[in-house]
Please model this.
Amino acid sequence: MGQPAALRCISCGKEYDPSQIDYTCPTCGPRRGTLEVLYDYDRLKKQLSRTTFAESGLESMWRYLPLLPVVQPEFIQPLRVGWTPAYRFPVLAERLGLKELFVKDDGQNPTASYKDRASSIVVIKAQEREREVVTCASTGNAASSLAGFSASTSLRTMIFVPKRAPEAKVAQLLIYGAQVFLVDGSYDDAYDLAAQAADAFGWYNRSAAVNPYLVEGKKTGALELAEQTNWNPPDAVFVGVGDGSVISGLCKGFDELARLGLIDKVPRVYGVQAEGSSPIEAAFRAYDGASDVPIHDIAAYTLADSICVGKPRDIVKAVTYVHANGGGFVTVSDEEILTALRDLAQQTGVFAEPAGAAALAGLRKAVEKHNMSFDSAAIVVSGNGLKDIASARKAVRAQAVSIRPLLEEVKRYL
Ligand SMILES: *Cc1c(COP(=O)(O)O)cnc(C)c1O
Ligand SMILES: [Zn+2]
Model:
C-alpha cells in the first residue's frame, strides 16, 4: 500500500504530515492551497515493475494499490471500480487522421462515471478516520458515486446538488439512500454550502479539490491507459474538464509512471471545456509558468452539466500540471458536444453523457480546427449516456415511429 509520505501545497510547496491535515494548506486557503499526495518514489521504484499490477490478479483499480493512499485495505468496498475497457476503433481513428484511437469507457463503473475512482478512495479515508458522515457537493456524478460507494458501509451520506441536476442523477442519490439537498442555486453555491456544513457538523468532505485523496483515485485512469497499451500510451489524451480534478489526476498518473521508470513517453493531456464554462482554459492561456495561476470565476452555462463549473476548485493544480505536462486546453460548443455524443454512439456503440462526449468533440476540434496532429490518441468517456437522456434526445433528429402491429405499416417506412 502506498502510505503517503507527505501532503504538499500546490501553491507554496509547504509539506504536511498526512496525519495532521485533512484538506487544504492553512496558509494558502482552500482555493490556492490544494494539496498533492507524495509517496516515497525511491522505495516504490525498487518495488514495482511493469508486471507487478497484473500479478495482483485484480481486475479493478485496486491492482494499483501500491500507488494509492490506502492505509487500511480492509475498508475497500466490494464494488468493482476501474479497469474499464480501452477500446480501439480503427474506422473512427482513420476519420480523425489517427493511426490509433482509444476510447476509455468509464461509463462502465459501478455508478456509471469516472468519479467512482475517487469516491471509492474517500469512503476508505472516511472510515480510516472513524468518521460517521460523508458529504459532497456535486453537479451530480461525484455525489451519486459517493452515495453508491457508501451504501455498503455504515457511513451516512449528505449530498448537495444544484436543483438543475439531471433527474437520473438525483434518482441515483435517493436509491442509494443519501440525504439529498437540492440547492436553489448553482453548483458553485452548493459547493460552498457543503463546505460550511462539513465544518459545522464535522462531516468528512468529498467535494472536488478540497480533499487531496480524490486526485489519487482519478490518476488510475492514466495508470490503466498505460498498462492497457502495453506501457506505450497514446500521444494525446482528451478529457472533459469542470473543476479540473480528473485532468490533474491523469497528469499526475502519467508523471508518476515516468518517474518510476514504467513508461518512457508521457502522453500530452488535453482538457476540453464547454465554451460557456471555460475558466480553466482561460487561466491556462494567461499562465506564464512562473507567477500565480490567474483565477477569474464566471457564471457558467453548458448543457454538459458535469462540466458546468464557473468557479473551478482544482484550477491551480489543473493549470500547473497541464503546463508541466506539455498538453493544453480546447473549448467546444454545446452543439459540437451533441454532435460528438451522437457520432460516438453511432460509430462505436459507446453511449456518453455530454461531458464524456466533450472529449471526442475536443479531439475533433484539435485535429480539424487547430491543426494538431497525433499518431494516436485516447478519449476518456467520463460518464454514461443513460444519466442524461434529455441531452441524448437533443442529439438526434430521428424520431421513433408509432405504428399498428401490421406488416403493411412497417413497409410504409422501408
Ligand atoms: C466530474 C466530471 C468531469 C470533469 O471532472 P472535473 O474533475 O470536475 O474536471 C467530466 N465528466 C464527467 C462525466 C464528470 O462527472
Ligand atoms: Zn500553501
Summary: The radius of gyration is 21 Å.
